[in-house]
Design brief:
The chain has about 170 residues and is an alpha+beta fold. It has a single domain, classed as Metal Binding Protein, Guanine Nucleotide Exchange Factor, Chain A (Beta Complex). It has 3 helices and 11 strands, in the order ββαααβββββββββ. A 6-stranded antiparallel β-sheet has the order 5-6-10-9-8-7. Strands 4-3-11 form a 3-stranded antiparallel β-sheet, with no helix packed on it. The protein is globular, with a radius of gyration of 15 Å.
Amino acid sequence: MLIVMDGKISRMKMVGGLCSLAAALGIPSKPADAGEQHFEVTHTDAEWRARLTPASYAVLRQHSTEAPGSSPLDHEKRAGTYLCAGCELALFDAKTKFDSGTGWPSFYEPLKDAVEMSQDFSMIVPRTEVHCRRCGGHLGHVFDDGPKPTGLRFCMNGVALDFKVKPA
């Protein structure tokens, strides 16, 4: 799917289209056995399956992608913190969330020491994968077409996140 705007192809829409197609076809963004690493929070595969919903397991542990527009967190506007659905590590402050128009919750900056990144070559276009630094769960990808002040768009899967409302 290519979107042409003013005679130009939007990179954000093109990559989003590729991710949407992969999600619709059930293609994971990276093989489940790609590179075993050691993290603070670990569980057996059976334990992860028991702890997570099927959708969260598919994204966090198998590097899948949820369908765009399917997460209620994409429309969340309250003050609070977005946590890893796998280990509850605080990942993003709601102040850094913005509407990217992609159908996935997007942020311009993670919290300090919350995420790690690696290269993902599973699609035609190389991408930078974002994962939880504590449990290694796949969260989404980061792109360089976000707003100021960072210019980054951390495009996250809503099922990989939990939202904690800031107390009044």
